[in-house]
Amino acid sequence: MKSNHLVSILVILVSLVILGCKDTITQPDLTGSLVGFVYTFDEFASLLDDHSQVLVTAVGSDHFSTRTDKKGRFEFKDLPAGTYELNFEKAGFGSLKQFGIQHLGGKPTTLGLHFDGSTNSSAFFIYQMPTTEIIILSVENDTLTGTFSFTGNTIPDYVTLRVYYSGVENFETSDAQLVTSSYLFKKNGEFKGSIYDLSSKFNPGEEVFIKACVLYRKEAITDFVFRIIIGIDSYFDYPGNTTIYPNLGNESSQFSFIYQE
Amino acid sequence: MNLHNFHLFTRNSLLMAILIFMTLLPGCEKEPEPLTTNSAITGYVSISDPLVEEPGNIKVTATGPYGHKSTTTLPDGYFLIEGLGNGTYYVDYSKEGYGTLREYGIRLFGADTVRVGGTSLFKLPSINLPAFVKAYTAIRDRYGPPTTFVCIETTVSDYMAFELDIMIYMDTSAEVAWNRYASYYPATDANFNDANIHTIYIDPEILPFESGTKVYLKGYPCNISEYGYNYLDTYLGIPVFSTLDKTKSTAVLSFIMP
Asked: What is chain A's mean pLDDT, rounded?
């Protein structure tokens, strides 16, 4: 009998050892909500009414996904503490990434918005991919003239381009000697704008080759009655050492002109 | 040991082991423990009224993964909450008689001091919320050239009530509320109309509705001095008036946008 009791006690002690809890001492063992806001725009950077169904993925030690509601709000509940890459995707829109999102867990992490109106807030902006085609680009003196093909019934009042310049024919845009933004405004059926001062890169009389991509961006919007919301709409690609604009349109054909000072 | 005793022993041991396991199981889900406890939150918060007798003594409460910790501000509004563990917190600023503000998303990594606040508290409204009787649009020429205004008739009887501590929310839906609206505006322009009925006037030029749209409105008690200084609940993504009394509201009325 006595030996039976001793064996029982031994079994209990072994159970205690086996079922004992591990202490978490080296990793933060917190979870919590991560909340952020996404605004969506059409291809001409006009704000859309419904920002829902943007797929937001948090990539860290594991993958977590959620979708935005109509106001663009997304929430990851019980997200483990860690540093995350956020991906924003929606069919027909450029996909945005953001790196280094630090989430400590505990009470909600709120990205971008500031509770006091004296400080500007920020949010993620994604745009529909451009459908505008660049048909012709020409330069005369300091004026860039563009001919475009638009889908749908919307003809915008202006077209914004990312313009690449090079003295080398058939250049790759990644090798462009100069990259600028140009705004071409509609006037008398044509789209015209000024070109950047090229004197620092090219000599008068030199043949300059250009390509362009449509790129509409919105720097900021007003929301919550009077607050300025600054857009986060691009990211730096470290391996490629370049800034990625997710809604950059297709590259045009190459055109050329003789640079005149 | 005979067979009977062996079975008895095995059964008793198993029962004891199960009992111990079930006792220990809740203990396996321990409360989180901080990796560091040397972070702090500091800042300033004040009362919006510069003439208030006691500007300090505002309660500041930091709530995080390990519970909450509070302090009260000095007369100049300064506060410091020390000895906080790593993690994300929110901070509440409160004082009796004033609206409470909540600031989210304060991250403490460890051995850091984060500055927050820089805001002001507003006094809660003491208004007895009047009834909203009727809403319509009419031409008003009492204080300038004839202009169409949105008019809201109330049951206020005080002849000196030119401003009312009421925030008016407007929307194209009859479900208009403090957290569902297209626009809001304070009752800063109130007077007795020609029929001697106390009326709130709103200039439709400031409203975001198309002409001919049916607009619904609802009023809540709110310190209208807070208009233009309201806060953003960054968790919900909604502008918040800390002095708004969500438990009281007028009936929903409607008008046709001129």
From this structure: 90
Interface touch B235/A108, C-beta < 8 Å: yes
Give the pLDDT score at A55: 98
pLDDT digits (tens, 9 = 90+) for B65-113: 999 999 999 999 999 999 999 999 999 999 999 999 999 999 999 999 9
Low-confidence ranges of chain A (pLDDT < 70): 1-28
Q: Do domains B39-121 and B132-256 have the same CATH topology?
A: yes
ipTM: 0.83
Q: Does B35 touch chain A (CB under 8 A)?
A: yes
DSSP conformational letter for B17: H
- Tens of pLDDT, residues B193-206: 888 899 999 999 99
Q: Phi and psi (nearest 5°) for A82?
A: 160, 180
Give the Cα separation of B45 and B77 in Å (integer): 5
A67 forms beta bridges with A55
What's the confidence (pLDDT) of residue B4?
Answer: 75
What's the pLDDT at A24?
Answer: 42
pLDDT tens digits, one per residue of B156-187: 988 888 999 999 999 999 999 998 998 999 99
Domain B132-256 has CATH 2.60.40: yes
Return the HEC string of B68-129. Answer: EEEEECCCCCEEEEEEECCEEEEEEEECCCECCEEEEEEEECCCCEEEEEEEEECECCCCCC
Helix axes A2-19, B3-28, angle to 10 degrees: 30
CA gap B14, B130 in Å, rounded: 71
Domain boundaries, chain B: 39-121, 132-256
The verdict on domain B39-121 having CATH code 3.40.50.11740 is no
Q: Do B239 and A121 touch (CB under 8 A)?
A: no
- Token output for B143: 């204080």
Contact A73 B237 (CB under 8 A): yes
Q: Residue B124 — pLDDT band, cuts 50, 70, 90? A: very high
Which residues of A touch chain B, with CB atoms under 8 Å apart?
1, 3-4, 7-8, 11-12, 15-16, 19-21, 24, 28-30, 32-33, 35, 37, 71-73, 81, 102-111, 113-118, 121, 224-227
